[in-house]
Task: structure prediction
Amino acid sequence: MRYALITGASGGIGANLARLFARDDVGLVLCSSPRSRDKLDALVAELKALYRIDAYGLCEDLSLPGSADRLIKQVDALGVPIEFLVNSAGAGIVGLAYQSYDAVQLTAMLHLNVVTLSELTLHYVKPMIERGRGRVLNLSSSAGYVVPHGLEAAYAASKAYVISVSESLSHDLRGTGVTCTHLAPGPTRTNFYIAAGLVDERRMAKLGYSQPDEIASIGYQAMLAGRTAIMPGISNNIVTWLARISPSRTLTGNISAYVVSRELD
Result:
Protein backbone atom coordinates (compact mmCIF):
# COMPACT_ATOMS: atom_id res chain seq x y z
CA MET A 1 0.00 0.00 0.00
CA ARG A 2 1.10 3.54 -0.75
CA TYR A 3 1.06 5.97 2.18
CA ALA A 4 0.59 9.72 2.55
CA LEU A 5 1.89 11.76 5.47
CA ILE A 6 -0.34 14.79 6.04
CA THR A 7 0.36 17.46 8.64
CA GLY A 8 -2.38 19.75 9.90
CA ALA A 9 -4.76 16.88 9.21
CA SER A 10 -7.37 17.22 11.94
CA GLY A 11 -9.53 19.72 10.04
CA GLY A 12 -9.85 22.11 7.13
CA ILE A 13 -7.90 21.50 3.93
CA GLY A 14 -5.70 18.82 5.52
CA ALA A 15 -8.66 16.67 6.61
CA ASN A 16 -10.29 17.00 3.21
CA LEU A 17 -7.06 15.97 1.50
CA ALA A 18 -6.96 12.93 3.78
CA ARG A 19 -10.42 11.94 2.55
CA LEU A 20 -9.29 12.22 -1.08
CA PHE A 21 -6.26 10.00 -0.50
CA ALA A 22 -8.39 7.45 1.39
CA ARG A 23 -10.90 7.37 -1.46
CA ASP A 24 -8.02 6.40 -3.76
CA ASP A 25 -6.88 3.56 -1.45
CA VAL A 26 -3.81 5.38 -0.15
CA GLY A 27 -2.86 4.58 3.44
CA LEU A 28 -2.65 7.55 5.78
CA VAL A 29 -0.34 8.87 8.47
CA LEU A 30 -2.11 11.93 9.83
CA CYS A 31 -0.52 14.46 12.15
CA SER A 32 -2.05 17.20 14.25
CA SER A 33 -1.11 19.14 17.34
CA PRO A 34 -1.93 17.51 20.69
CA ARG A 35 -4.70 20.11 21.11
CA SER A 36 -6.61 18.46 18.25
CA ARG A 37 -6.12 14.84 19.34
CA ASP A 38 -9.85 14.11 19.68
CA LYS A 39 -10.64 15.46 16.22
CA LEU A 40 -7.73 13.56 14.72
CA ASP A 41 -8.75 10.27 16.35
CA ALA A 42 -12.31 10.74 15.09
CA LEU A 43 -11.07 11.35 11.53
CA VAL A 44 -8.83 8.28 11.61
CA ALA A 45 -11.72 6.12 12.80
CA GLU A 46 -14.03 7.58 10.14
CA LEU A 47 -11.63 6.93 7.27
CA LYS A 48 -10.75 3.41 8.38
CA ALA A 49 -14.44 2.52 8.59
CA LEU A 50 -15.44 4.11 5.28
CA TYR A 51 -12.52 3.03 3.10
CA ARG A 52 -10.93 0.09 4.92
CA ILE A 53 -7.44 1.50 4.60
CA ASP A 54 -4.55 1.68 7.04
CA ALA A 55 -4.69 4.99 8.89
CA TYR A 56 -2.66 6.25 11.82
CA GLY A 57 -2.99 9.40 13.90
CA LEU A 58 0.12 11.02 15.37
CA CYS A 59 0.24 14.12 17.56
CA GLU A 60 3.14 16.54 17.54
CA ASP A 61 3.34 20.30 18.01
CA LEU A 62 5.22 21.18 14.84
CA SER A 63 5.82 24.77 15.95
CA LEU A 64 8.46 23.59 18.44
CA PRO A 65 12.18 23.02 17.79
CA GLY A 66 12.98 19.37 17.06
CA SER A 67 9.37 18.52 16.25
CA ALA A 68 10.08 17.37 12.70
CA ASP A 69 12.63 14.84 13.99
CA ARG A 70 10.17 13.62 16.63
CA LEU A 71 7.45 13.16 14.01
CA ILE A 72 9.84 11.35 11.67
CA LYS A 73 10.72 8.91 14.46
CA GLN A 74 7.03 8.23 15.08
CA VAL A 75 6.49 7.56 11.38
CA ASP A 76 9.58 5.33 11.20
CA ALA A 77 8.18 3.24 14.06
CA LEU A 78 5.14 2.46 11.91
CA GLY A 79 7.36 0.98 9.18
CA VAL A 80 5.38 2.45 6.29
CA PRO A 81 6.91 4.03 3.15
CA ILE A 82 5.80 7.61 2.55
CA GLU A 83 5.07 8.19 -1.14
CA PHE A 84 3.07 11.40 -0.65
CA LEU A 85 4.03 14.24 1.69
CA VAL A 86 1.47 16.98 2.35
CA ASN A 87 2.67 19.95 4.40
CA SER A 88 -0.71 21.39 5.32
CA ALA A 89 0.00 22.58 8.87
CA GLY A 90 0.34 26.33 9.18
CA ALA A 91 -0.36 29.31 11.39
CA GLY A 92 -0.57 33.05 10.98
CA ILE A 93 -0.40 36.38 12.76
CA VAL A 94 -3.05 38.52 11.13
CA GLY A 95 -4.15 42.10 11.68
CA LEU A 96 -1.07 43.39 13.49
CA ALA A 97 1.82 45.58 12.41
CA TYR A 98 5.11 43.73 12.65
CA GLN A 99 6.36 45.88 15.53
CA SER A 100 3.35 44.79 17.62
CA TYR A 101 4.07 41.04 17.38
CA ASP A 102 4.68 38.82 20.36
CA ALA A 103 8.18 37.38 19.88
CA VAL A 104 7.28 33.88 21.09
CA GLN A 105 4.28 33.69 18.77
CA LEU A 106 6.37 34.94 15.86
CA THR A 107 9.06 32.30 16.41
CA ALA A 108 6.48 29.52 16.68
CA MET A 109 4.76 30.60 13.45
CA LEU A 110 8.02 30.76 11.51
CA HIS A 111 9.13 27.39 12.85
CA LEU A 112 5.88 25.78 11.75
CA ASN A 113 5.48 27.50 8.39
CA VAL A 114 9.12 27.45 7.32
CA VAL A 115 11.44 25.23 9.36
CA THR A 116 9.26 22.17 9.92
CA LEU A 117 8.01 22.21 6.33
CA SER A 118 11.59 22.37 5.07
CA GLU A 119 12.88 19.63 7.36
CA LEU A 120 10.06 17.21 6.53
CA THR A 121 10.39 17.88 2.81
CA LEU A 122 14.15 17.36 2.84
CA HIS A 123 13.83 14.12 4.77
CA TYR A 124 11.08 12.48 2.70
CA VAL A 125 12.03 13.66 -0.78
CA LYS A 126 15.31 11.72 -0.69
CA PRO A 127 13.76 8.20 -0.45
CA MET A 128 11.15 9.26 -3.00
CA ILE A 129 13.96 10.01 -5.45
CA GLU A 130 15.57 6.65 -4.68
CA ARG A 131 12.27 4.88 -5.48
CA GLY A 132 11.77 6.98 -8.60
CA ARG A 133 8.29 8.16 -7.60
CA GLY A 134 6.63 10.46 -5.12
CA ARG A 135 4.65 13.65 -4.67
CA VAL A 136 5.09 16.65 -2.35
CA LEU A 137 2.21 19.08 -1.83
CA ASN A 138 2.91 22.26 0.14
CA LEU A 139 0.21 24.67 1.32
CA SER A 140 1.31 28.18 0.43
CA SER A 141 -1.04 31.17 0.14
CA SER A 142 -1.96 33.97 -2.20
CA ALA A 143 -0.62 36.26 0.56
CA GLY A 144 2.88 35.10 -0.37
CA TYR A 145 2.59 36.94 -3.69
CA VAL A 146 1.66 40.30 -2.14
CA VAL A 147 4.71 42.37 -1.17
CA PRO A 148 4.62 44.46 0.91
CA HIS A 149 1.70 42.91 2.78
CA GLY A 150 0.28 45.27 5.38
CA LEU A 151 -0.74 43.76 8.74
CA GLU A 152 0.39 40.27 7.65
CA ALA A 153 4.11 40.88 7.21
CA ALA A 154 5.63 37.72 8.68
CA TYR A 155 2.82 35.38 7.64
CA ALA A 156 2.97 36.60 4.05
CA ALA A 157 6.78 36.35 4.10
CA SER A 158 6.65 32.79 5.41
CA LYS A 159 4.30 31.83 2.59
CA ALA A 160 6.52 33.60 0.06
CA TYR A 161 9.25 31.24 1.27
CA VAL A 162 6.98 28.23 0.72
CA ILE A 163 6.22 29.43 -2.81
CA SER A 164 9.88 30.01 -3.62
CA VAL A 165 11.26 26.79 -2.17
CA SER A 166 8.45 24.70 -3.70
CA GLU A 167 8.94 26.08 -7.19
CA SER A 168 12.72 25.73 -6.92
CA LEU A 169 12.40 22.15 -5.68
CA SER A 170 10.01 21.39 -8.52
CA HIS A 171 12.75 22.52 -10.92
CA ASP A 172 15.44 20.50 -9.12
CA LEU A 173 13.31 17.33 -9.24
CA ARG A 174 12.94 17.25 -13.02
CA GLY A 175 13.59 13.78 -14.40
CA THR A 176 13.50 12.04 -11.00
CA GLY A 177 9.90 10.80 -11.08
CA VAL A 178 9.16 13.01 -8.06
CA THR A 179 7.26 16.29 -8.16
CA CYS A 180 6.59 19.21 -5.84
CA THR A 181 3.40 21.24 -6.05
CA HIS A 182 2.33 24.23 -4.01
CA LEU A 183 -1.30 25.19 -3.49
CA ALA A 184 -1.90 28.92 -3.00
CA PRO A 185 -5.50 29.52 -1.89
CA GLY A 186 -6.99 32.81 -0.84
CA PRO A 187 -9.21 33.17 2.25
CA THR A 188 -10.68 29.76 3.08
CA ARG A 189 -13.18 28.79 5.75
CA THR A 190 -10.76 26.84 7.97
CA ASN A 191 -9.62 26.87 11.59
CA PHE A 192 -6.88 29.34 10.61
CA TYR A 193 -9.39 32.08 9.89
CA ILE A 194 -11.84 31.03 12.60
CA ALA A 195 -9.10 31.18 15.25
CA ALA A 196 -8.11 34.64 14.05
CA GLY A 197 -11.74 35.82 14.29
CA LEU A 198 -11.94 36.38 10.54
CA VAL A 199 -14.94 34.22 9.67
CA ASP A 200 -18.62 35.00 9.92
CA GLU A 201 -21.33 34.31 7.38
CA ARG A 202 -21.76 37.97 6.26
CA ARG A 203 -18.01 38.45 5.81
CA MET A 204 -17.74 35.18 3.89
CA ALA A 205 -20.46 36.34 1.51
CA LYS A 206 -18.75 39.69 0.92
CA LEU A 207 -15.18 38.45 0.56
CA GLY A 208 -15.81 35.17 -1.21
CA TYR A 209 -14.22 32.72 1.22
CA SER A 210 -13.63 29.32 -0.36
CA GLN A 211 -14.66 26.04 1.19
CA PRO A 212 -11.83 23.69 2.29
CA ASP A 213 -13.18 20.66 0.40
CA GLU A 214 -13.14 22.64 -2.85
CA ILE A 215 -9.57 23.86 -2.28
CA ALA A 216 -8.42 20.38 -1.28
CA SER A 217 -9.83 18.85 -4.45
CA ILE A 218 -8.11 21.43 -6.66
CA GLY A 219 -4.78 20.93 -4.90
CA TYR A 220 -5.07 17.15 -4.97
CA GLN A 221 -5.65 17.03 -8.72
CA ALA A 222 -2.78 19.45 -9.34
CA MET A 223 -0.45 17.31 -7.20
CA LEU A 224 -1.40 14.12 -9.06
CA ALA A 225 -0.80 15.91 -12.37
CA GLY A 226 2.64 17.01 -11.21
CA ARG A 227 1.91 20.71 -11.60
CA THR A 228 4.32 23.13 -9.96
CA ALA A 229 1.72 25.60 -8.68
CA ILE A 230 -2.02 26.03 -8.47
CA MET A 231 -3.86 29.17 -7.37
CA PRO A 232 -7.62 28.56 -7.12
CA GLY A 233 -10.06 31.30 -8.08
CA ILE A 234 -10.15 33.96 -10.79
CA SER A 235 -10.37 36.82 -8.29
CA ASN A 236 -7.44 35.37 -6.36
CA ASN A 237 -5.32 35.35 -9.51
CA ILE A 238 -6.35 38.90 -10.44
CA VAL A 239 -5.52 40.32 -7.02
CA THR A 240 -2.08 38.73 -6.87
CA TRP A 241 -1.33 39.75 -10.47
CA LEU A 242 -2.25 43.36 -9.70
CA ALA A 243 -0.03 43.29 -6.60
CA ARG A 244 2.91 42.15 -8.69
CA ILE A 245 2.55 44.89 -11.33
CA SER A 246 1.60 47.71 -8.96
CA PRO A 247 3.81 50.78 -9.60
CA SER A 248 3.60 51.78 -5.93
CA ARG A 249 4.75 49.55 -3.09
CA THR A 250 3.11 51.98 -0.66
CA LEU A 251 -0.21 51.50 -2.44
CA THR A 252 0.13 47.71 -2.32
CA GLY A 253 0.90 47.77 1.39
CA ASN A 254 -1.97 50.13 2.16
CA ILE A 255 -4.52 48.17 0.15
CA SER A 256 -3.53 44.82 1.66
CA ALA A 257 -3.64 46.32 5.15
CA TYR A 258 -7.06 47.81 4.39
CA VAL A 259 -8.40 44.41 3.29
CA VAL A 260 -7.12 42.74 6.46
CA SER A 261 -8.50 45.52 8.66
CA ARG A 262 -11.89 45.25 6.94
CA GLU A 263 -11.88 41.50 7.62
CA LEU A 264 -11.24 42.22 11.28
CA ASP A 265 -14.10 44.74 11.65
Remarks:
- The chain is about 55% helix and 15% strand.
